[in-house]
Amino acid sequence: MPLNYRFRDPALAALALTHRSVGKPNNERMEFLGDALLGAFVAEMLYEAHPKASEGELSRLRAQLVNGQALAEIARKLELGNALTLGPGELKSGGFRRDSILADAFEASLAAVFLDGGLEACRQVVRELFGERVGALPRSSKDAKTRLQEWLQGHGHALPQYELIDSHGEDHAKTFDVRCTVSEPQVHSAEASGSNRRQAEQDAAEIVLARLTAQARNT
Amino acid sequence: MPLNYRFRDPALAALALTHRSVGKPNNERMEFLGDALLGAFVAEMLYEAHPKASEGELSRLRAQLVNGQALAEIARKLELGNALTLGPGELKSGGFRRDSILADAFEASLAAVFLDGGLEACRQVVRELFGERVGALPRSSKDAKTRLQEWLQGHGHALPQYELIDSHGEDHAKTFDVRCTVSEPQVHSAEASGSNRRQAEQDAAEIVLARLTAQARNT
């Protein structure tokens, strides 16, 4: 299943698949642009699909959809590997199979669609490719503290600590600064503030959970 | 100078200026979306304006334009501070002057424009607000190693170390893996690869420089 977009300028499509091992020009600048566009369009989809998700939850969901491994998987479905232009070194060492090279080529291809056909064309391509994936995300009904606890328990780690660092403002309108810390598999801590201590703890837990899951994905 | 966009749905504009200290709903979800849109449109502007900049340079330039302090400055020009809805605690402690609250409200306002008027409307607002700023960026003619060296010297720090970690591939098509390390003001190191050792060093230097300048901005 190749990319569902017909390029007016095939040279743009080709440049998007040109790895830096070839020399210059290559797809690195396009990857910068494609990464930004992809982030925006996926943010839009998540904003629509998860009207109750907090900012932290939206970030976490996006990181689940937009990461090297997930993008490489899409690149493979689009059969970008065979279309890559690699320098002789990467060619020999099987660069066309490498997640990072595939993910970069996919992002650069999105930039190519944008440069060739405009914002709306790029958005449509992203929506088609990610629609099912966004739909398949778990609609989390569990709050962040619960999810963090379950994640830690599921991995055999100690439970998180929550501390109140500070509170300020008058009694009827206090702001609470809290910290959530986990000690395993590695120390992570995050701070959050809110008019409600429990909500601030949820926000801090969401950040810590996002770091833990990001780390778990990268190892 | 208020935002140059006329909302069909003024409730969206109002929600974008509602801080979480008020409770829910507030502008946090919109900030997530606005941040992503802003990143994409500024990426586009930089891609156009700096056709020779590397990916690392584009990232660095974007971080110069899109950071809490810079966005708060724009929010002040747009007079968002007076229009904010804050909870009583933040109101008392002068939250309408805080950079982070202003920057978030600005990003959320961009999301409101998008939700109200679509992608193109949001893009136009970003282009108007950032056009001059993008134009004013130094067109760096110095390479990253030179800029890193100058930054370190300018701050009285030791010079960076470059090491060749590995090289692979055949003689006529080698890939070089290099590392750039600085020891002051804090240890930072970055790795980069390329078919040309000097270029890989430039790329690694660009990453280290981006980290140093990001850190300097945040302290």
How would you characterize the overall build of this protein?
The structure is a homodimer of 219-residue chains. Chain A is mainly alpha-helical and 219 residues long. The first copy, chain A, folds into two domains: 127 residues, Ribonuclease III domain (Ribonuclease iii, N-terminal Endonuclease Domain, Chain A, Orthogonal Bundle), CATH 1.10.1520; 75 residues, Double Stranded RNA Binding Domain. The first copy, chain A, is built from ten helices and three strands. Chain A is elongated and about 65 Å long. The first copy, chain A, has a three-stranded antiparallel beta sheet with strand order 1-2-3. The model of chain A has no long low-confidence stretch (mean pLDDT 90). Chain A starts with 9 loop residues before the first helix and ends with a helix. In chain A, β1 and β2 form a beta hairpin. The interface between A and B is large, with 44 and 44 residues.
Quick overview:
Chains A, B: It comes from Rhodanobacter hydrolyticus. The structure is a homodimer of 219-residue chains. Chain A has 219 residues and is mainly α.
- The N- and C-terminal alpha carbons of chain A lie at a distance of 30 Å
How would you classify the helix and strand content of chain A by structural class? mainly alpha
Helices and strands of chain A, in order, run as HHHHHHHHHEEEH
**Major beta sheet summary of chain A:** 3 strands, antiparallel
Number of helices in the DSSP assignment of chain A: 10
Any idea what the radius of gyration of chain A is?
A: 21 Å
**Percentage of residues in strands of chain A:** 5-15%
Task: Give the overall shape of chain A, derived from the CA principal axes.
Answer: elongated
CATH topology of the largest domain in chain A: Ribonuclease iii, N-terminal Endonuclease Domain, Chain A
Proportion of residues in helical segments of chain A = 55-70%
Q: How many discrete domains of chain A?
A: 2
CATH superfamily of the largest domain in chain A: Ribonuclease III domain
Number of beta strands of chain A: 3
CATH architecture annotation name of the largest domain in chain A: Orthogonal Bundle
Q: Largest interface, and how many residues on either side?
A: A-B, 44 and 44 residues
The chain-level mean pLDDT of chain A equals 90
Q: Quickly name the level 1 CATH class of the largest domain in chain A.
A: Mainly Alpha
User: Regarding quaternary structure, how should these chains be classified?
Assistant: homodimer
